[in-house]
Amino acid sequence: MKMRIKKIIGGFFTVWCLLWFLSVPLQAEETGEMPRLSALPGAPAESELYATAAVLMDADSGRVLYGKNENACLAMASTTKIMTCIVILETISPDDILTVSSYAESMPKVKLYIKKGEQYRVGDLLYSLMLESHNDSAVALAEHVGKQFLSPELRSKDTGEYTVEESKQAMAAFMMLMNRKAVELGCENTWFITPNGLDATETIILEDGSTIQKEHCTTAAELARIMSYCIRESPCAEAFLEITRTGNYSFYANERNFSCTNHNAFLNMMSGALSGKTGFTNKAGYCYVGALEQDGRTFVVALLACGWPNNKSYKWSDTRKLMQYGLDYYFYRSFSEEGVVFDESRLGAIPVLKGRTEVLGDSASVDVKIAGRSDGESTDERPRDKTGEWTEGLLLRDDEEIRVEYTVEEELTAPVESGTTVGTISYLVGDTVYKEENIVTADRVMEIDLKWCGRQILDRFLLIP
To answer: How far is CA 15 from the centre of its chain?
Structure first.
């Protein structure tokens, strides 16, 4: 009898005294700092470019392939309008009808010469905005969208009857949408004050009553990021491309005929040219952002402060030089073909504290797997790059290497649900992560509770001879 009691008590405490296991995360060897992108073999020297700031970007991964002062905050003139256009496309229908305010009519050249009280189709003015870069069209479009966020009284008021102050309120609401989108895209040094890119400065009052001065500006890297979003990631990318690569567009409104010609000369300079937007103000100088697609590779070039009159052609020279560099030196390389795809068999089971087991006294553990690699899994769990798109490779130079690092939890505590993320596999070039896979639990492990303990003790008691 005493021996039976000892066995029962021993079985009870065995449930709570589980073994600990450790799994050691492997780390790739650390590498030194990457050289300046402009110093890589074959890359244009910074002195060879006219632009004060320049970027060549892989639109699919968001990776900067070439940079010259790429993080310097500078005025960007009418390249602003790529963000204006995409926010409008994502917010309202091109078939909406807007009414022109006196404030929109008052905008300086370059302009369509729309007049107070006239009505236009949004889609028509988008061509005016992107092909001819009309400043009055930009304001009319921004007011039409922005008024939706004003008071009920101003929303119901005809825009043609807006005072200048009311128009500015609608404009401010629209600029909030543009700046919010910039934040969503990870643009930390971009600030929009005008929808047409005219130079501007504003004073912002903070919660503590202090003030800061903000200028209408961006960086070459962030301007390229915005363009990449417009042509690849936005739900309205197709509409954006249709507008920006149209050569000529005509429409009729208010008993007048209008004709718009695309001033993006790059569309006819290189095979595969996709889109682009020029810009100029006295402060910004000549600016440009454009995209090109060839052989499954999509490049974006952004240039800021690329000369002043009479150097209008500098931006085309810089764009061609950077695009050709991308085409000559960067090619798609598959992670699997490079032999760097992480082998799932290297992953072992993870110990689970306070977890139930089939046999009393055993140690609880849970198997793990790589999300998205098993048959039947949702494609939403497949590995994704920094833009959120699934990828199996990256545009790389011949002299670049991909390395892999992974980390896994050493132990877990019950309860553990199936599909819980317990680690990450990272694919890096230099010090930058361009692809990640999640390591997840393959099964569920229930937590030990008193009911389970009682059943285990009872089962062991009944089975003791």
So the answer is: 49
Helix (H, G, I), strand (E, B) or coil at 25: coil
Q: Is 67 left (phi over 0), alpha (psi -120 to 50) or beta?
A: beta
- Length of the chain counted residue by residue: 465
> CA angle 61-245-276, nearest 5°?
50
In the chain, the amino acid numbered 301 is: V
Match 């496309």 to its residue by tokens. 89
Q: Which two tokens stand for residue 68?
A: 């010259």
Query: Looking at this protein, which amino acid is placed at residue 396?
Result: L
CA distances to 65, 133, 173, 200, 262 from 196, rounded to whole Å, are 29, 8, 15, 11, 16
Instruction: Output DSSP code: residue 218.
Output: B
- How far is residue 307's CA from residue 285's CA, in Å, rounded to a whole number? 6
Question: Can you tell me which residue has the tokens 């300086």?
Answer: 108
| Amino acid of residue 269 | M
Rounded CA separation 345/294 (Å) = 38
Q: Which of 445, 373, 318 is CA-nearest to residue 45? A: 318
Residue spans of beta strands (DSSP E) within 262-381? 273-281, 285-294, 297-304, 331-334, 350-353, 365-366, 368-370
Residue among 85, 63, 55, 74 nearest 230 (CA): 85
Return the amino acid letter for 24: V
Render each residue's pLDDT in the chain as its tens digit; 465 residues: 444 444 444 444 443 333 332 233 333 333 344 567 888 999 999 999 999 999 999 999 999 999 999 999 999 999 999 999 999 999 999 999 999 999 999 999 999 999 999 999 999 999 999 999 999 999 999 999 999 999 999 999 999 999 999 999 999 999 999 999 999 999 999 999 999 999 999 998 888 889 999 999 999 999 999 999 999 999 999 999 999 999 999 999 999 999 999 999 999 999 999 999 999 999 999 999 999 999 999 999 999 999 999 999 999 999 999 999 999 999 998 877 777 778 888 888 999 998 888 776 778 899 999 987 654 443 333 344 444 544 577 899 999 888 888 999 999 998 999 999 999 998 888 888 888 889 999 999 888 877 777 777 776 666 555
What is the value of pTM for the model shown? Answer: 0.82
Antiparallel, parallel or unpaired: β 412-413 and 350-353: parallel
